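ESCALATION

Customer reports they have been waiting on this structure for their group meeting. Please prioritize. Original submission:
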Amino acid sequence: ATKFAWLARFLGMRPSPRALQDKGILKDAPPEPDQTFFGVSISSIYKEEDNLHENIPIPLYETAKALQPYLTVEGLFRVSGIFSEMNRLKKVFEDKEDPDFANVSSIHSISGLLELWFRELPEPITTHALYDDFMACIGDEIPEEQSVANISKLTAQLSEQNQLVLSFFLKLMSKVAENEGENKMGTKNLGVVFGSILLGGAVLCFSLGLKTTLERQNKVVQLMIENHETVLPDQSFELFADW
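Update from on-call: job pushed to the front of the queue and completed.
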């Protein structure tokens, strides 16, 4: 037990990559020159109008559109896609070609590609700067209504581009959750899938408090999905009009 506690303290004291980057010790790895959509900042994608569809990054928009007929598929966003197929589709987008979603081997490769787009962002959609504030929205003594109000204040501090992307994502997730009876992916399960992806946060190193950290991240995303019209009230997208 003593060794276990010592290891937890040691790893907990290790600085995060972000802290090392801020001190100039660790440099950000530059994206590959041919990368337009994956592994690059949201702001860089928005510099070119051709990178957008309905003011949303094309890979995010097109994968969401392709998933519309499959919202009832069990385990959507929980079941992993085929890695090689996701990489092939990723290259199609980077080559600025039209993906052939109709002939994929697995629908989960499409949902997995959407998840991969968020996972490869250099900074989480909610930003490193607001991580602690988002986490502080959740607590045993904080009523859910207050948590939602606090989350809404924080999303209002995000850039317009981040708000657009997050709103689009949350609306898609709400459509997925509406089919929970068939796909088994309600807001709680979606929160588990996307908690650490959307919030990122400090390095999830070995820690006695890791379980609580993950639970808070998941709950923040769950509340965002359940209250997406409150959290980001001024966004609408034609894509979802007939869903």
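Sent to customer with the following note: Strands lie at 52-53, 56-57.
Escalation resolved.
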